[in-house]
Structures are given as C-alpha cells and as structure tokens.
Description:
- This protein is mostly beta strands.
- It has one domain: Rieske Iron-sulfur Protein (3-layer Sandwich).
- It is 0% helix and 36% strand.
- It has a four-stranded antiparallel beta sheet, with no helix packed on it.
- The chain is globular.
- The relative contact order is 0.23.
Amino acid sequence: xxxxxxxxxxxxxxxxRQGARVVRRSEGxxxxxxxxxxxxxxxxxxxxxxxxxxxxxxxxxxxxxxxLHDWKISxxxxxAVAPDEGCAARFPVRIENGVIMLSLTPDExxxxx
Length: 113
C-alpha cells in the first residue's frame, strides 16, 4: 500500500480512552477509536443496521455500541456481533512516534460497507 493513501490523524493522546475522533470525507466519514488499552482502530462511521454514527457510541473492550439501537460492532473486524449481522468497513491504522496514521483505503472483506 502506498504512503500517499495514509494521512496523519493526530497524536494518540488527542483521542480519549474509550473515545473516538471523526475524519470527515466526501466518500463517507471514518471513525478512529482508542480503547482503554490504547489500541487504535478505524471504521466507516456508519452502523450497518440503520447508519448510526459509530463515533458517538460507547467503546468497551474491542467493540463499539451504536448509539441508535445498541448494535455491537467489533473494532477488529467491523463485523456486527451475533445475533446481529452486517459490517462497517475497516481502515488500517498505525502509530508512528505517538502519531496515529490512517489509511484512506479500506480493508477488503466487508461487502456493501
């Protein structure tokens, strides 16, 4: 993957633990999440159920709960947790010297996301 597809989001400490930051894009917003263990994940900011803003949900463990209908979405995969079904596109992230870098190219494997 080429470096031109990566953007700087900010420092790790700019996102509160169990919080999110939104990267606005014309192609659809991306939510960047930080867990209590300082793991960072990025998903399309749209719940696969009714399109709720995942960035406004509650982060717990490696999941986020959609604020509209409490669907749980895995931050690792973007997949809804059973019994719910659906997927929010996942975007690669990396941390370089405390700075969060985000790929603008989603991972493959999430149809219709």
